[in-house]
C-alpha cells in the first residue's frame, strides 16, 4: 500500500510541475521597431514592433526585452530579424535579435 501511495504522490508532483509553466510558443520573423519604452521604475523594458511581411504598423505588439543592453541597441524604424516567445499568460519576450542585412523599409 505504501508503494502505491508514493507512486501516486510522485505522479501528482510531476504533473503539477509540468503544468505550471503553460504552453510555450516561439516565432522567428522580421520585425520593425516603432516604439521603445520602459516602466516608471525601469524594471521592465519593452518595444512595440510588427512583422512587415504579415502585419501593418497598426497591428504592432509589445515585446518585453529582458536585457537592457540589447534594448539600448535597438533603434526605432529599423528592421531586425528576431525570435520572440510567449509562455502561458506571461508577456511576449524577445529571445534573439539580429540587425537585418536588408534593412530598407520600402
Largest sheet: 5 strands, antiparallel
Task: For the record, give the distance between the C-alpha atoms at the N and C termini, rounded to a whole number.
Answer: 71 Å
Order of helices and strands: HEEEHEE
Fold-level CATH name: OB fold (Dihydrolipoamide Acetyltransferase, E2P)
The secondary structure category is alpha+beta
Shape: elongated
Oligomeric state of shown chains: single chain
Total beta-strand segments: 5
Top CATH class? Mainly Beta
Count up the helices.
2
Number of domains: 1
Mean pLDDT: 86
Q: In which order are the strands of the major sheet placed?
A: 3-2-1-4-5
Give descriptors for this structure.
2 helices; 106 residues; 5-stranded antiparallel beta sheet; alpha+beta; OB fold (Dihydrolipoamide Acetyltransferase, E2P)
Can you offer a commentary on this structure?
By secondary structure, the chain is α+β, with helices and mostly antiparallel strands. It has a single domain (23-99), classed as Nucleic acid-binding proteins (OB fold (Dihydrolipoamide Acetyltransferase, E2P), Beta Barrel). It is built from 2 helices and 5 strands. The protein has a 5-stranded antiparallel β-sheet with strand order 3-2-1-4-5. The model has no long low-confidence stretch (mean pLDDT 86).
Topology:
Layout: H1 2-20, E1 24-38, E2 45-50, E3 61-65, H2 68-73, E4 79-87, E5 93-99
Antiparallel strand pairs: 1-2, 1-4, 2-3, 4-5
